[in-house]
Amino acid sequence: MLKIGDFSKLSRISIRMLRHYDEIGLLKPEKVDVFTGYRYYDESQLLDGERIQVLKNMGFGLSVIREIMENYADPGELKHFLEIKRHEIAEQEQILRQRKHLIDSTMEWLRKDGNIMGYDVSLKILPKRYVASVRQVIPSYEEEGRLWHIMMEETLGRNIRYDSPAYDLAVFYDGEYMERNVDVEVQRAVTGTYQDTEHVKFKTAPQVQYAGAVFKGQYEKITKVNEAVAKWCADNGYEFDGMGFNIYHVGPKDTQVPEDYVTEVCYPVKKKQ
């Protein structure tokens, strides 16, 4: 039998943690002296201590580790827990990659003097167009691709002739930023006239005067571009006059490299009275 101090040294688990493991029923001592309260461990429990440490290093919480230890002899159960943790880690890796991209993008915007790089905003006219359109309420802004997928599927094989430029764009109809259930329409300019499908509607889109700024790269930059457009409007005596939209000059259909995307952030505007 090993005293708690000796067991602590051999297992590389602090006495404080061993007492905690005892309290939660994760690793209970083989014997507790009824008079002194001293804890004694069997040498075979060193293996349990090692397993607990390995599982902690994998990222399991103590409550889950206790459940795993109760089923450790069953390879199928152990594999099940490991697969769940592996999936969780993969999701965390994706989140961390996104955060790293956001940090990298922000650092690119910083000048050497610490100021945010500016974007060139200009007043433009989007001409009247005949467009194929899909408008739906989707779970989030990131789900916009499903609208383009619907358009592609329902126009496939119909010999649709797209205009040049096609003005691939998305219009955002909500009057505020929505965390979920967003009202979005995607449009692509076409030549000729066509019958509507189940979800694709063909219509004439009116001419629009807008203030816009073009940027290259991933879509995380849109917030900063929005700020640039808003400041331009304030400085030049314009106000917003309709729903904002993005024009995708180079998008996912053109390249698999997000850093090569070219997007124009646009807001219909009018001169203040």
TrEMBL record:
Alphabetical list of Pfam families matching this protein: GyrI-like, MerR_1
Gene Ontology MF, one: DNA binding
Domain HTH merR-type: 1-71
Protein name per its UniProtKB record: MerR family transcriptional regulator
UniProt cross-references to InterPro entries, sorted A to Z: AraC_E-bd, DNA-bd_dom_put_sf, GyrI-like, MerR-type_HTH_dom, MerR_fam, Reg_factor_effector_dom_sf
UniProt keywords, alphabetically: DNA-binding
Family annotation (SMART domains): AraC_E_bind, HTH_MERR
Top-level taxon: Bacteria
